[in-house]
Amino acid sequence: MTVTVRARGNFVLRFRRLLGAGFLLAIGFAALLPEPWKGRLSTTGPVHFTVHVVAFLVAYLLIAPMPGGGRWLLLTGLLLFVFGAVLEVLQTRVFGNELEIFDMVANGVGLGLGFAGVYFVSREGGVR
Questions:
Q1: How far apart are CA 43 and CA 53, in angstroms?
Q2: Which pTM does this prediction carry?
Q3: pLDDT tens string for the chain (128 positions)?
């Protein structure tokens, strides 16, 4: 592997992680929007569960170490799950909402899909 290829790979990894951090900020911002704004952004109503699944799937794919060992992938998923749970608790404190367990389930589904995708693609490619 040449130095140029390594440098390009490091740039892509840094850029992806920077995007991931920005995406997490966007999730946090969206979670703490007042209720009328959430309705306008489809974060309430029929697509609510899907928004959570897709948001945490994308967050996982941006932040997870690729290729990564199973432990690091699990730790990444766990930390993102805790991040989502903290946001849910903050919503109860800021808006007085009830704790929405199904939001955390949806977050977990998205993280599980991301973990499965990254883990099995890494395994198929022979990367450990």
A1: 12
A2: 0.82
A3: 555 555 566 787 788 889 999 999 999 998 888 877 776 766 666 688 899 999 999 999 999 887 667 788 899 999 999 999 999 999 999 888 888 899 999 999 999 999 998 888 777 654 44
